[in-house]
Specification:
This protein has eleven helices and 14 strands. It is of the alpha/beta class. The strands form four sheets. The chain has a five-stranded mixed sheet, covered by helices on one side. Strands 6-10-9-7 form a four-stranded parallel sheet. A hairpin with a 2-residue loop joins strand 2 and strand 3. The protein is globular and about 60 Å long. The N and C termini lie far apart (about 50 Å). The relative contact order is 0.11.
Length: about 350
Amino acid sequence: MQLYNTLSAKEREALIEAAGKERLTISFYKYAHIGNTSIFRNHLFIHWNELDVLGRIYVANEGINAQLSVLAENFDAFKRHLDSISFLENVRLNIAIEHNNKSFLKLKVKVRNKIVADGLNDDTFDVTNKGIHVGASQFNELIEDPDTLLVDMRNHYESEIGHFKNAITPDVDTFRDSLDIIEKDLAEHKEDKKLVMYCTGGIRCEKASAYYKHKGFKQVYQLEGGIIEYARQVEKKQLENKFLGKNFVFDHRRGERITDVVISNCHQCGNSCDTHVNCANEACHLLFIQCETCAEKMNHCCSDECKEVHSLPYEEQKRLRKGKGASNKIFKKGRSPVLKFKK
């Protein structure tokens, strides 16, 4: 029984191109109490592999987090399978605004301790005791209320290219970093202010809403479906779009444009730009913002040093990497002294 990928990313990419069929990029999550995560993981892999689903799915005792690509012609069968799982019946699916047939190239279903790493070890914290979910219309009203504190629950490299106006955007590398920082900064407003949070698709601010309720905040709200669903409702209902810029996404696209305004700059020359790339030097792979002019000048690298390495024959690059651990730059996304115009 096949419980793993048999094709490489390049082989899968070639098959997708040859097929020429439309694929949908979808994400969803659900906090629930899952018993045997390994059995559940295998069940998903077997059924989704048969449907040619590709993506990155995390399963934990606290629930499931899925970002995936499915053939448009298989969507109904995929949805029927979801609905056959009791706690996933009618789960909200965030369908991408901009589709890319190569958004994912492998099916990876992994068991994790948590679907969102939070660094918490508190048995009294119930992640299912969440805050109030609000749609785009009510969200727009709330964030205009002077008694509202609007908080972006994403990381610095995400909010840098796009965020809601007047939002608090913590300068953090990870979700776990933000929890204590936000509680400390807003502690005096636990009783008198509305705490409204948002993230990409809802999964982080849902856990955060439960956490801040646990910590004594009295009025806790979250944007239902995150920025992805907000953009869809704004267009469908012809609402005022209060988001500025791009929504960072965790697949090969790296971003979806929500509004035309560009709020960030190229990290190398300082010109207006909101295109995230990874350094072409595989020993670096730093995530940063780079304009087309700098991409051509720097051969898609973040620094002269990486440009020099990347120009070497591939076998020589492999020899230089041999025996060395992955660069810390991979995990410090957008943070490096070589980025002269990083905000």
